[in-house]
Amino acid sequence: MNSLWNDDDARALVERYAAADVGPDVALRTYSARLLGADPRLVLHGGGNTSVKGHARDLTGEQVAVLFIKGSGWDLARIEPAGHPAVRLEPLLRLRDLEVLSDEAMVGALRANLLDSNAPNPSVEALLHAFIPEAFIDHTHATAFLALADQPDAEARLAELYGSRVAVVPYVMPGFALAKLAALAWRPGLEGIALVKHGLFTFGADARQSYERMIDFVSLAEQAIPGRPRPRPSATRPDRGEVLPILRGALGGEPRWILDLRDEGPAAEIVADPRLSDWAGRGVATPDHVIRTKAKVLVAPPFAHGGQAWRDGVKAALRTFAGDYHAYFARHGAGLGKTMLDSLPRVVAIPDLGLVALGRTASEAATAGDIAEAWAQTLLAAEAVGRFEPVGEADTFAMEYWSLEQAKLGHRRALPLEGTVVVVTGAAGAIGAAIARAFAAEGAALALLDLDAAGLEIAAAGLPAGTFSSICDVTDRDAVEASLDKVCARFGGFDVLVSNAGAASLGAMADLDETALRSSFDINFFAHQHLAQGATRRLRAQGLGGAMLFNVSKQALNPGPQFGAYGLAKSALLALVRQYALEEGASGIRVNAVNADRVRSGLLSPQTIAARAQARGLSEEAYMRGNLLGAEVTPEDVAQAFVFAARMQKTTGAIFTVDGGNVAAMPR
Questions:
Q1: What is the distance between the alpha carbons of residues 187 and 168, in angstroms, rounded to a whole number?
Q2: Omega before 667 cis (within 30°)?
Q3: Angle 316-319-325 (CA atoms, 0-180°, nearest 5)?
Q4: Distance CA 378, CA 285 (A)
Q5: What is the pLDDT of residues 60-71, one digit of tens each?
């Protein structure tokens, strides 16, 4: 590893925060913490913690000694000065004289001594930072370090590697006991503390020294790990688009799971190794990870020909995993008054394919995926050195069910469509982008398809992280298949198809060129058929039902002059919707239409509005408000109709009108 410290960047941050009355030590603490958090080889997703000791004014204006310590919920990669709330130091130091201190009492003491009562809870390792008298302290779960710390003879290995520069401490549960043990291990001149099967602490008189000692010690660990041959990928690698929807369906219905596949690097190596089944049961690289991935990885059966046989094999493996988890809870949770968490895995290893992480949201699945990759990398490095032997089952259980660790996950209220994956075509247009925003607001994960690459980028920019985009010409069947496969590879499958893409052409039928008519049918009918066929096959493979929703048009029921090519194709599309509803009800696939009218969009451009208004002998404003309510319909109105249709669990073959009231277009 190389130090990324840059004096100019550090100085600029000090100057920037000085304007907000943040002192240089806290500013530099923020700077070096971000350097640590930006490198996944050091910390992942809220892991690790950092601190600096200093002074701050309390409510009376008195200067008091404080510990600025990372607060719960902050990620080092994006931390701000507020992410290191100030805690009075002297009261914390007095706690060291106690023989025991419960977790509840420790949290209470930390909160009681916050200078800002509205600040987040200080890190559960705040007392360790307090008891060690160094100014700056950094803590990471570096992958290379864990490859050595997760060895049967870890204490001897680490002592030999670091010598007198680092004290080696055996594994103890984080909290008061670990803080006292680390304090006893500290001595003047010490540069760090290595926690067996846990992580690494480094100290310094300033931010740069503490940070660069971390880089130095992790580099030494990297150098102690020999290189290893990289196995070649299997020649019979399963197809992601075929396998993942089956797995997603086998995991169950409500709430649904979103998958995150990792099929390169260490993740691909580990699932190609004959030792996979043994490795999958060894445990997590560091106990902190158990709340994201559970202790063990489920190994799926190898994928053979025939989806149903593999589905049955996966379901059997899930039942075995659940039974083992129940037994694990019974062994360690009996009499503790704890409620068992769900018994599903969070990481599934598919031989010759990769590691699949599970989450209720795309973000949650991605977090588990990152940790699964780090586990694979740590395990392979540890096996190259000796044997991967992380913390034991009892200690893992204690961490998994530790209330202070579970608090990191939070207890937010789930949004209505959380776990639902929605594919939106024509997503770069006004209506498509509005549909995407509306589903995002309901918690859905999104896959955006459009031929307009620049428009897709703009549409995705305002959506949650993890939104997937694919450039796709929906009139090209092969392009549709490729994009739907990419969606399945990204999320494991999908639940709702919003087939929205379309285009309008003007002209009287008697004068219309046949090429224009065929072009209209390509985009306004056959493209929808391509999507419906591809979606149906994948939704059937999942076995979870789902919805296919089509942007039809009032033109299907109430044709307008000079709009025949468009209206005829949309009439055929409405018939297609009804046919799919008829044929796919037994699969639990709901198929519905949204008929909108007069919406400003790429389809109804200013030029088209002018032409349509002229054809009807109206002003443009009167044309746009020409409905019973006298109100113009917006893309957001249409988007809400699609969300409503997606949530209607027992409706199929229906037409949802969004036109402000048009008697001639009312379904009969």
A1: 12
A2: no
A3: 145
A4: 7
A5: 889 999 999 999
**Which CB contacts under 8 angstroms, 24+ apart, belong to 485-489?**
485/239, 485/240, 485/241, 486/241, 487/421, 487/423, 487/447, 488/240, 488/241, 488/244, 488/245, 488/538, 489/240, 489/241, 489/244, 489/261
CA distances from 36 to 31, 50, 75, 86 (A): 9, 9, 10, 21
Question: 566 catalytic, yes or no?
Answer: yes
Burial 451-464 (b: 16+ CB within 10 A, else e): bbeebbeebbeebe
Dihedral sign for Cα atoms in the order 39, 41, 43, 44: positive
DSSP 8-state symbol, 230: P
Contact status, residue 240 vs residue 488, Cβ threshold 8 Å: yes
Place of tokens 């002192």: 23
**Angle CA 282–284–289, to nearest 5:** 165
- The predicted pLDDT at position 92 comes to 97
Alpha-carbon gap, residue 407 to 122, rounded angstroms: 12
- Band (pLDDT 50/70/90 cuts) for residue 161 is very high
Strand, helix or coil for residue 601: coil
Residue 165 identity (one-letter amino acid): R
H-run or E-run covering 226? none
Where do runs of H (alpha helix) occur along 522-655?
Answer: 527-542, 564-584, 606-615, 620-624, 635-647
Count of other CB atoms within 10 angstroms of residue 619: 12
Q: Of 162, 566, 580, 623, which is the active-site residue?
A: 566
Q: What share of the chain is helix, strand, coil (3-state, %, to 5)?
A: 50, 15, 35
Q: What is the pTM of this model?
A: 0.91
